[in-house]
């Protein structure tokens, strides 16, 4: 095929045969969206197609848009090109996009992880000829501990802070990470309070997953109410006047970047927990091998290093840049 089935241009990942874009970063007519994070689901497209779980999430974030939802593994055809969504395991509703035309199969992962987090539909291996993979944590230094171990560490931290009469403030992105934390916190330790941005998104996804009760923090909330309890807040709240009125408190951050020495210090938090919504090094390599793909295109993250390593393993691997390159240290980590 002279023209690749999927190609990168200044608007996004383009399928010329279908005249449709995957996770475009500039306004286009037809967009197929992997998940609700703002670097993948952007405002301004005329038509959106996504997994049906994402419809309410994307509408909450983008407003009154023209969006249709599909089921897992449901094939829809555009000008002879077959598309389908398959679980990516990244966050609630996150999908890989399978694209097939005249027997050639490509898979675009969006963002993904292989560990079952209990709230996302677990990652599904999709066989293909060409695989477009993120490389957010594409270095051997990144190796995740099991979620159960990390959550035990977080709950123990909360219990210790409670014993000292302090409020625990834990930072996590409002979509995905926050609900993952909520799902695995131990409510027997105390009450769970939330920042407004966290509570707004949690209200949207509550019909989709079972979560413990939470209490929205309002101007009427007293700091005495928070003592010994835990607050889930977005990283953007750190250092704000909103948080300063909660003293005495202890801060923590749940992110894959906490695996790096110095990350906790740069983010000025008291405790770092290594909990990522992306694959680690081993997860990336095992996923790629399982697809059977010969061609691998590496996007945002440590893409140059990772693609070089894949070439050493015998893959036809290269790097493609996206507009969300450089956002790998953002809140969805």
β-strand number? 19
Q: What kind of oligomer do you see?
A: single chain
Strand order of the largest sheet: 7-8-9-10-11-18-19
Q: What sort of overall outline do the alpha carbons produce when their principal axes are compared?
A: globular
User: DSSP helix count?
Assistant: 9
SSE succession:
EEEEEHEEEEEEHEHEHEHEHEHEHEHE
Average pLDDT for all residues? 94
Instruction: Kindly report the CATH topology of the largest domain.
Output: Metallo-beta-lactamase, Chain A
Enzyme class: hydrolase
Protein name: Ligase-associated DNA damage response exonuclease
InterPro entries: MBL, RibonucZ/Hydroxyglut_hydro, Xnuc_lig_assoc
Keywords: Exonuclease, Hydrolase, Ligase, Nuclease
List keywords for this structure.
ligase activity; 333 residues; ligase; Metallo-beta-lactamase, Chain A; Rossmann fold; RibonucZ/Hydroxyglut_hydro
Explain the layout of strands and helices.
Layout: E1 7-8, E2 13-15, E3 20-22, E4 30-32, E5 47-51, H1 52-62, E6 67-70, E7 76-78, E8 81-87, E9 95-101, E10 104-108, E11 130-135, H2 147-163, E12 167-171, H3 177-184, E13 192-194, H4 196-205, E14 215-216, H5 223-226, E15 230-233, H6 241-244, E16 249-254, H7 263-267, E17 271-273, H8 281-291, E18 295-301, H9 303-312, E19 316-319
Parallel strand pairs: 3-4, 4-5, 5-6, 10-11, 11-18, 12-15, 12-16, 13-14, 13-15, 16-17, 18-19
Antiparallel strand pairs: 1-2, 2-3, 7-8, 8-9, 9-10
InterPro entries: MBL, RibonucZ/Hydroxyglut_hydro, Xnuc_lig_assoc
Organism: Flavobacterium hungaricum
Protein name: Ligase-associated DNA damage response exonuclease
């Amino acid at each position: 095929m002279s023209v690749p089935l999927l190609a990168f241009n200044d608007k996004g990942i383009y399928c010329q045969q279908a005249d449709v874009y995957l996770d475009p970063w500039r306004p286009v007519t037809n967009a197929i969206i992997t998940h609700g994070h703002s670097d993948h689901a952007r405002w301004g497209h005329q038509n959106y197609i996504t997994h049906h779980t994402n419809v309410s999430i994307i509408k909450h974030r983008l407003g009154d848009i023209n969006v249709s939802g599909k089921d897992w593994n449901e094939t829809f055809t555009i000008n002879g090109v077959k598309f389908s969504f398959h679980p990516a395991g990244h966050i609630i509703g996150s999908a890989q996009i399978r694209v097939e035309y005249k027997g050639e199969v490509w898979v675009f992962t969006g963002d993904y992880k292989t560990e079952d987090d209990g709230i996302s539909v677990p990652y599904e291996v999709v066989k293909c000829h060409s695989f477009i993979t993120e490389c957010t944590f594409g270095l051997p230094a990144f190796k995740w501990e099991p979620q159960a171990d990390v959550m035990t560490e977080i709950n123990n931290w909360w219990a210790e802070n409670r014993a000292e009469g302090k409020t625990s403030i834990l930072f996590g992105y409002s979509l995905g990470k926050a609900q993952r934390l909520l799902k695995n916190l131990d409510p027997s330790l105390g009450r769970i309070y939330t920042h407004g941005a966290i509570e707004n998104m949690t209200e949207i996804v509550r019909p989709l997953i079972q979560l413990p009760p939470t209490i929205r923090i309002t101007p009427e909330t007293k700091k005495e109410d928070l003592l010994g309890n835990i607050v889930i807040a977005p990283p953007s709240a750190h250092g704000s006047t909103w948080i300063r009125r909660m003293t005495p408190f202890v801060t923590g951050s749940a992110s894959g970047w906490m695996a790096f020495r110095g990350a906790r210090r740069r983010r000025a938090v008291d405790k770092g927990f290594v909990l990522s919504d992306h694959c680690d090094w081993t997860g990336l390599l095992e996923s790629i091998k399982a697809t059977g793909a010969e061609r691998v295109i590496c996007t945002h993250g440590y893409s140059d290093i990772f693609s070089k390593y894949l070439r050493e393993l015998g893959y036809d691997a290269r790097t493609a840049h996206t507009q969300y390159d450089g956002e790998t240290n953002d809140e969805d980590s």
